[in-house]
């Protein structure tokens, strides 16, 4: 983070308002480090002051209320300094300046210390700091023309280093265009390069003055791509009291951009041990990624994709409050328009259409770190099945279970059994041919079930909804005779995967959501210790 400290200004006469709570929630999300917040209690001259005692009591009460709110918001705010000030008293600002300088110095020291590699990291750090291995990202907030020079862009370097003469990608006219850096200034002083945390003005070559480009990201050529699909590790903001349901529309904040999006919440269907292994591998790759280069996310994205291919994801009706043992929830974000998102950046979902001032509610609903995104152009959106869409990767669906009974054993072949009750009389069996079924012992506790035998669905048997199942051949003929009996319970478990997407016509009129279903069987589907079943 390029932020050293945060100053939160609170009106002493109104104290904690709805927007104050939202600010505290944002600080907790974006700035989790402790002892980096200063609370400025402003307008203390407007407190009741008929007597010195009354004034002091009012001030003490205001400070106590703010401290209580900070403590209940987040543990990291417990020791936050609260500095009363008034525009009518200059002496109040001396302590404020001292406190801000102290916090800023400590933050700068901590960041400098964290950048020093230890012995175990020395062998993993590249010897050259090229734009290819360490791409830069410049957050642009304003642009203006300068006579004789062209269009000037002002912004802050988020990561990497930018030199005069370097090429950068900048989104102009709804597409990325590559331009060369003509000159750089820091507070009207020319410089040859800028690095992370520097605020500067950058002049680019061949940029039309008519371009109105503000609040955007510029980067090394090819470092960022536009996206309309994001996958987040979603966490609910506990101050938001309204339900957060799948397929609801939210305002999604990605960098400078705020877009409407449909949000689908899912949870991984897997063993807890496998889930822990997934997190371990993901954190390990994040750590290795941060050691090697802070900007190049291609390797981490590929690793994350390969990990997530091994899991199926079950639809979640509503995002719940997070608990320690809770299986994490992922959010699939389907944006209305393309945005540029930095990998591993924080994305926030909110309901800005709610009236926070009148109902005193927090409009911020959930947040998460971006894990995956699609890689399209501004004018296209890949459809599921193309192999490039992250909705194909996630395998989102619901776990279904059907129960049947062994009707009889085939007289000519003891490895074939007839099962009733798994399909309807007039139903189709085509999606289920080749799927695996199992015969289990009857037990109310699913974790105590044991599998007697497995079989493969072959075809329909007659016209009454019965099917023919071939018992897997790892059992001998004698074993089958002793194990397979009539009226044994037979289970069919499968994932009914869902794909949702919008198809845009040439005139950009949106069609209704299309649906496509696919029946699959993950390898772990018959483990009865599965999470979320």
Number of strands: 26
Percent of sequence in beta strands:
35-45%
CATH architecture of the largest domain: Beta Barrel
> Quick one: biggest sheet?
14 strands, mixed
Q: Which fold does the CATH topology of the largest domain refer to? A: Elongation Factor Tu (Ef-tu), domain 3
Helix and strand composition category: alpha+beta
What is the assembly state of the chains in this entry? single chain
Helical amount:
10-25%
**CA(first)-CA(last) distance:** 39 Å
Low-confidence stretches: 119-132, 288-297, 376-387, 475-481, 500-516
* Envelope shape: elongated
Domain count: the total is: 4
Average pLDDT reading = 74
Reading off the top of the CATH hierarchy, the class of the largest domain is best stated as: Mainly Beta
The count of helical stretches stands at 9
Polypeptide structure, described:
The chain has 533 residues and is an alpha+beta fold. The chain has four domains: 6-114, Rossmann fold (3-Layer(aba) Sandwich), CATH 3.40.50; 137-219, Translation factors (Elongation Factor Tu (Ef-tu), domain 3, Beta Barrel); 226-394, Beta Barrel (Elongation Factor Tu (Ef-tu), domain 3); 398-520, Beta Barrel (Thrombin, subunit H). The protein has nine helices and 26 strands. It has helices at 18-30, 52-73, 92-114, 119-122, 272-292, 298-308, 356-359, 390-394, 477-483, and strands at residues 6-11, 37-42, 82-84, 137-146, 150-159, 161-163, 167-172, 175-186, 189-191, 193-195, 199-204, 216-219, 226-236, 248-254, 257-269, 312-316, 329-340, 346-350, 364-373, 396-409, 416-420, 436-440, 451-461, 466-471, 489-501, 514-520. The strands form four sheets. Strands 13, 14, 15, 16, 17, 18, 19, 20, 21, 22, 23, 24, 25 and 26 form a 14-stranded mixed beta sheet that branches. Strands 4, 5, 7, 8, 9, 11 and 12 form a seven-stranded antiparallel beta sheet that branches. The longest helix is centred in the first third of the chain and has 23 residues, at 92-114. The radius of gyration is 30 Å and the shape is elongated. The model is unreliable at 119-132, 288-297, 376-387, 475-481 and 500-516 (pLDDT under 50).
């Amino acid at each position: 983070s390029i932020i050293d400290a945060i100053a939160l200004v609170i009106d002493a006469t109104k104290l904690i308002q709805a927007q104050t709570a939202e600010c505290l929630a944002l600080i907790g999300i974006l700035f989790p480090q402790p002892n980096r917040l200063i609370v400025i209690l402003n307008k203390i001259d407007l407190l009741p002051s008929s007597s010195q005692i009354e004034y002091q009591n009012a001030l003490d009460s205001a400070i106590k209320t703010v401290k209580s709110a900070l403590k209940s918001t987040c543990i990291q705010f417990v020791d936050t300094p609260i500095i009363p000030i008034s525009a009518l008293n200059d002496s109040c600002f001396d302590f404020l300046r001292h406190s801000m300088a102290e916090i800023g110095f400590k933050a700068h020291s901590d960041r400098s210390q964290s950048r020093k590699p230890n012995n175990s990291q020395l062998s993993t750090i590249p010897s050259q700091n090229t734009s290819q291995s360490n791409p830069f990202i410049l957050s642009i907030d304003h642009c203006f023309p300068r006579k004789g020079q062209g269009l000037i862009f002002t912004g802050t370097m988020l990561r990497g280093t930018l030199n005069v003469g370097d090429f950068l990608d900048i989104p102009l006219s709804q597409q990325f265009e590559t331009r060369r850096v003509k000159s750089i200034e820091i507070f009207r002083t020319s410089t040859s390069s800028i690095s992370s945390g520097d605020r500067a003005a950058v002049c680019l070559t061949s940029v039309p003055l008519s371009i109105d480009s503000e609040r955007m990201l510029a980067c090394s050529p090819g470092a960022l791509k536009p996206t309309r699909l994001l996958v987040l590790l979603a966490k609910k903001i506990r101050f938001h009291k309204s339900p957060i349901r799948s397929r609801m529309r939210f305002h999604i904040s990605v960098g400078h951009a705020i877009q409407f999006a449909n949000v689908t919440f899912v949870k991984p269907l897997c063993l807890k041990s496998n889930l822990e292994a997934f997190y371990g591998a993901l954190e390990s790759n994040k750590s290795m990624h941060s050691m090697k280069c802070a900007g190049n996310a291609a390797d981490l994205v590929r690793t994350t994709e390969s990990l997530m291919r091994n899991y199926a994801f079950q639809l979640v009706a509503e995002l719940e409050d997070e608990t320690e043992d809770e299986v994490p929830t992922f959010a699939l974000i389907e944006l209305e328009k393309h945005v540029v998102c930095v990998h591993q950046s924080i994305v926030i979902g909110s309901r800005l259409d709610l009236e926070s001032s009148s109902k005193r509610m927090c409009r911020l609903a959930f947040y998460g770190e971006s894990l995956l995104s699609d890689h399209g152009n501004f004018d296209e959106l890949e459809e599921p099945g193309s192999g490039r869409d992250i909705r194909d990767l996630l395998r989102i669906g619901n776990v279904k279970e059907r129960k049947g009974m062994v009707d009889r054993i085939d007289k000519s072949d003891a490895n074939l059994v007839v099962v009733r009750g798994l399909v309807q009389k007039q139903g189709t069996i085509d999606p289920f041919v080749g799927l695996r079924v199992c015969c289990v012992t009857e037990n109310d506790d699913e974790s105590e079930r044991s599998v007697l035998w497995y079989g493969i669905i072959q075809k329909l048997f007659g016209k009454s909804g019965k099917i023919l199942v071939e018992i897997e051949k790892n059992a001998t003929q004698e074993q089958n005779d002793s194990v397979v009996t009539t009226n044994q319970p037979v289970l069919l478990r499968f994932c009914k995967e869902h794909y949702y997407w919008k198809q845009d016509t040439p005139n950009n009129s949106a069609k209704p959501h299309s649906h496509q279903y696919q029946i699959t069987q993950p390898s772990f589907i018959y483990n009865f210790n599965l999470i979320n079943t």
